[in-house]
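Chain X:
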Amino acid sequence: MNHWLMKTEPATFGIDDLARARNHTTAWDGVRNFQARNYMREMRLGDLAFFYHSSCDVPGIAGIVSITREAYPDHTAFDSEDPHFDEKSSPANPRWFMVDVKLVTKFDRVIALEELRRYGQDKLKNMVILKRGNRLSITPVSRAEWNFINSLL
């Protein structure tokens, strides 16, 4: 099993929105970065991901989701009315993909980015989210990082 971190802006779609979704499941669409897309194509059924809130008052990890459907073409890229439309993508030759995620647990508290940074020189020194200039919406998380972050709860 692989572990991931998936960033979203709670003003657009947060963990509470996922909790209200039918079966607590949704498609993770709209990714328009090639590296993040490639990470999604590596995701397998049952992989777990931290659900991370960004661009908000307290950025941080709000819960855990599981991958319930592996990468498939992101239909929003084909819809000229959708904000994620990409004229270079087509059903016959898709450039962008999405996965389905299901809420596993919403944490009682957000594990804030500042809390993660406190461990940045030690336990989480290689964690991608803590690297300067990282803006990827999907990043891998090592087993050691996964276990340590879960121990903070």
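Chain Y:
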Amino acid sequence: MRVFTLLLRYKSFISFCVPLNPSRTTQNVRYFSVPAAKESFSSLQIKKRPVRKKPRLDEKQPGPYNVIAYATAAEYDLEKLAKGLKSQNLYTSSKVENNSDVLHALANYHVDTEPREIFFFREGSVVLWNVSDLESSNVINFLKPYEQDSYSEKLIQGESEMMNYQHQIEGKPSTLEQNGDFVIPFERNLLDKYTFSNSLALSVKLGIWEAMLDKYIDSIEYVTEDLKLGKKIKMTREEVLRKHGELFTLRHLINLSSDLLDTPDFYWDRDQYERLYVQTCSYFNINRRTKVMNEKLNHCIELVELLSTHLSDKHHIRLEWMIIVLIMVEVAFETIHYLERYLS
């Protein structure tokens, strides 16, 4: 606007300075018009790069929708949970391709055209598709009677994962966008949602274990400081043995009781979904996070074994000194008896 104002003032100045002869003024003087000034100013602007348009999704369906995953316990009793859902009559539950470790629930009452679906995994994770925050809280509270070794509310909320999903053009397979959005077909998408849910459930479960390991490391951090300063170890042999058990339990969960190190058997004869599962796990850095956790576990095990060896050595030294003292006491008594016999 300042440029346009200056141009208009410049035009007034030219009109004031030229002679009043109309014919001469018209012949020799070129006036600046406002449209011409705008055109001249716009030609000086830097041209912007053309914006890349995203692939066109299914415009008939609104979106995006939310999908959120929680890990609330070490394990769910899916058989009792299925009965509880049936008695509640709010969701219709079923298995996914005869997989006994997963329970799929579809809401009986629709809020909009997009269905609300939930996947319950036996290892203690739940993934909710197009479910509001209020309904998610109700589902988490509903799960408590069917949980084993429930986690704290702070840990559940802190390690949750929230993503978005949209619908794909009809006839195209599901994909994972670079920004992390799931793109799935509108119809016949149960296995697509299950595949995404499987990797999401694995990610939040790994997040819980990472938080547990960080808490464990904080609990033994003072020991390394005491060792560095040469102070007395303040842990007992029973406490060290308990710490050893916690480490091996966590190591067992990560490497033996989960699918962190290998692709589940479900995808062996389903190449399309296996590629989608591997791609999603790669997005969540499952392999790298698992490797880092195992390295941390190895360092913790070395530290605990060092403590165990140190405390065992101290215990052995204490026993040896007790034996030495007993021998000295026995020698003293024998000496006294000898002196009594000799003096008598």
